[in-house]
């Protein structure tokens, strides 16, 4: 039971540090699920082409989420943190 709680708290801690990781994971699974459901009505498209399009869309979403996560962390590190430090110096 404690191992489960440790894993759950670890996931929640990581999600709070990098909020775009769960967004990327959710988007990945949503795109894959949608494309798998859409596979029934793919028409003349070959299976391999359909799977490649699904993979590219899912990877594109994950890369976009990772990029936004990096931009967000850089914003926190280089914009928000210096402002807080400057306010702390001004208050002293």
UniProtKB/TrEMBL annotation:
GO terms for cellular component: mitochondrial membrane. The chain crosses the membrane at residues 20-36, 56-75. Residues 1-84 form the HIG1 domain. It comes from the Eukaryota. Keywords: Membrane, Mitochondrion, Transmembrane, Transmembrane helix. Coiled coil: none annotated. GO terms for biological process: mitochondrial respirasome assembly. It holds the Pfam family HIG_1_N. It is found in: Mitochondrion membrane. This is HIG1 domain-containing protein. It comes from Amphiprion percula (Orange clownfish).
């Amino acid at each position: 039971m404690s191992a489960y709680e440790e894993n759950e708290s670890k996931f929640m801690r990581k999600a709070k540090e990098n909020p775009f990781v769960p967004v990327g994971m959710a988007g990945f699974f949503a795109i894959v699920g949608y494309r798998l459901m859409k596979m029934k009505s793919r028409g003349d498209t070959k299976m391999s082409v359909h799977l490649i399009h699904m993979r590219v869309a899912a990877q594109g979403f994950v890369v976009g989420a990772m990029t936004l996560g990096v931009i967000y962390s850089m914003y926190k590190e280089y914009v928000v943190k210096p402002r807080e430090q400057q306010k702390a110096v001004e208050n002293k």
